[in-house]
Amino acid sequence: MRILISNDDGLSFPGLIRLREVLDNFGETWVFAPAEEKSATSQALTIYKDIYVKKVDDRTYEVDAFPCDCVNVALHGALAPRFDFCVTGINKGVNMGQDIWYSGTVGAARHAFIHGIPSFAVSCGYLDHTGDYTKVAKIFSELFSRFSADPNQNFLLNVNIPMTAEDASDIKWAKLGRRIYRDNYKRDIQSDGSMLLNLGGSVLSHGGEAETDFYWYDKGFTVITPLTIDATDHNKLKHHER
Question: Closest by alpha carbon to 146, among 4, 35, 26?
Fold first, then answer.
């Protein structure tokens, strides 16, 4: 089994390192990850510009570009063989609700899925660059063992593991909830009247609807949401087809 690993927090991020350690037990792991943090870059892809790629060892590459570029280089850069699975993460902070459209972690997994690779995007409650991702990685390895048994499948699974989880027994499959963002830019007026605006982050909440990813995550469950590529509003389409 060959497993492609990437993330949006950078090659040296401990979440990725712990993830690779547990996935090494399942087969041959390859890492293609950004040189530095590229959070909230969704499926941004570099075109018409060179991408700097550094070989760290035989199966580890640093890619100075977006997470989606990392996956694309792994799949089409003639540097690696065909992969059986792709796993992105472990992301610092959850990716639920509308987060899935912004997240570089989910975007990279989605890109692999588009190209026919069964993929997981893995996130957890916030841990910084000094956090210990060992327990979260172990829980995901239990989940991976369940879904990797059959290679003749294709899926995109968004996995969010709370820091309070002890094992992979408490799992809920759930639909996406409704994320609420409250953004505030810091403004620095320059001498020529121009401005520097800095979005240091968002105040996050959610709609509170029952049976969603947020609902079960807040109750301490590991939440799995199967994602699809079809973003069509089928109700609206049916209305206009009449």
Answer: 26
Strand, coil or helix: 224: strand
- Report the b/e string of 192-227 with b at 16+ CB within 10 A: eeeeeeeeeeeeeebeeeeebbbbbbeeebbbbbeb
What does the chain come to in residues?
A: 242
Instruction: Give the residues of the chain that fall short of pLDDT 70.
Output: 127-130, 151
Angle at 232 between CA 229 and CA 236, to 5 degrees: 165
What single-letter amino acid sits at 84?
D
d(CA 8, CA 13): 9
pLDDT of residue 203: 78
Question: In the CATH scheme, what architecture does the domain 2-177+208-241 have?
Answer: 3-Layer(aba) Sandwich (3.40)
CA-only gyration radius of the chain, Å: 19
- Number of Cβ within 10 Å of residue 111's Cβ equals 26
pLDDT tens across 49-105, in order?
999 999 999 999 999 999 999 999 999 999 999 999 999 999 999 999 999 999 999
CA–CA separation, 128 vs 149, rounded Å? 32
